[in-house]
From TrEMBL:
GO molecular function: DNA-binding transcription factor activity; transcription cis-regulatory region binding
Protein's recorded name: LysR family transcriptional regulator
Protein's UniProt keywords contain Nucleotidyltransferase: no
Domain HTH lysR-type: from-to ranges: 1-58
Family: Belongs to the LysR transcriptional regulatory family.
Species annotation: Salsuginibacillus halophilus
A Pfam family that the UniProt record links to this protein: HTH_1
Entries under InterPro entries matching the protein: LysR-like_Sec_metab, LysR_HTH_N, LysR_subst-bd, WH-like_DNA-bd_sf, WH_DNA-bd_sf
Keywords (A to Z) from UniProt: DNA-binding, Transcription, Transcription regulation
Amino acid sequence: MNNDQLQAFTQVARTKSFSEAGRALFVSQPTITSQIKSLEEELGAPLFHRTKKFVQITPAGEKFLTYAQQMLDLQMQAKNEIGALNGELQGTLAVASSLTIGESILPALLHDFKKAHPYINLKTEITNSQHIVEMIQRGEFEIGLIEADLQVPDLQSEAFMSDELVLFAAPHVLKDSEAELDLETLKEIPLVMREEGSGTRSVFESRLEAHGWTKQDLNIELELGSTESVKAAVEAGMGAAILSKSAVRKELELGLIQTYRIKDLNLKRNFYIVRKKDRALQLVSEMFYKTIMAGKFSE
């Protein structure tokens, strides 16, 4: 058995799909099928039950999965230790990031890391927190930066930076000019919201749930898929919005918006770095992870 076969097997086991495994590993479905068949012939047992509708791992496959992952982890650890002997860090750092972190925080983090390790390459994907979790589970990325602690059983999540959400609107849009608003006032304010699955929205709705509220209690006028589009809609006077304070710092300094506190609603939160539990990372990913966790970032 070889590394490609082990990668194919563990990816099919994760995704329960030969075609999805092929896409994740950038090879064709027939290649995945051939690799699995070769493994099954070598082991003398079927690893998956296949039908036109689903793929299910067999008892033999479940048993082999533990060993296959251990072999891949040992390979990664060996490469990391040998690579560390060479001095200069090389390879591609692939990071998936939520929109707020990707637009406001990640560029500076990558700039500093690239400056310290000039021979690495960088790859990023900016999307919402739920999608990041799914990509890490599928093995498409090793590390993700998200805005909510989503408590996914097979992922390790650690806080690396503090943040705070704020309610903001264009000047003079809200009738109440006070810097602090009562919670009940939210029901009357037209809101521009991030889409379902966004970390910002998940945190905001969870804090409202603690007061017995649901999203049906809000006056949601518009849902948008990016931080920048939400800010543009607010600046145009379409309503108020909830975003990270770090995401609206520039607009606040320019006087384009006004921020408001909401009485009795705690909107402080953390940003989290996520990875697969009990899974060895490539050396470049491991170094970035350690750099983030040693940074003690705060607003």
